[in-house]
Amino acid sequence: MNNLTKKLVSAAFALAIAVTPLAACSSGAPSDTPAEPSAAEATSASDINTFSDLLALDPEMYMNGFSEDGSQFVFVCKAGDISMRAIAETTPEAKEQIDALDISDMDYLTQLGAILDTLPLVSMEDLSAGIIPQDELDAYVGKTYQDLLDAGFTFDHYFFYGGEQTGADLIHGDFDYTVTFDATISDDTDGGAALANATVVEISCAGPADSAIDPYLS
What we know:
This protein is of the alpha+beta class and about 220 residues long. It is built from eight helices and nine strands. The strands form two sheets. Strands 1-2-3-4-5 form a five-stranded antiparallel β-sheet. Strands 6-7-8-9 form a four-stranded antiparallel β-sheet. A hairpin with a 2-residue loop joins β7 and β8.
């Protein structure tokens, strides 16, 4: 495994999650009992004390990796409204076990949690306070790319371009924000230069950015 592993839920995994409730309801008439909330909805960050607690949320995106000397394992994830960073001390044996896991396995997170729960927990940190509230983000609509830079955002990459609008990911603190601009660009290698006079059409938080984990891997 590379020093940093990043994963979004695959389409097949997402489909499997979506199909499961339908299969459970195939036995007959609909129930009057409301569906149980998902783990991410039912659990607050303060209730998460172990890696298994965290991984049971079935995060829709996560990043993990070892520190450069291999002494710590760092896991950053987003599950619903919860964004967390957890760090455990590792041993050569645990690192070998983690490296041997197959990230494409449907039980990868369960297997990972079983290993990590045997290790000393260094920290379990709720990152959610660092997310800019949506009402504050909405205030940037109609402002410019330069206004975002002046507010501390940094360009990361374009995620769509070539039409009347352009989408770009910008980083602020530990989080990634997707922004749509009223700009047309044809070159996605200019580092955001073409957005100089572009106006913000829409902006929202996508989840933790590489900046939430990279400093802990060096």
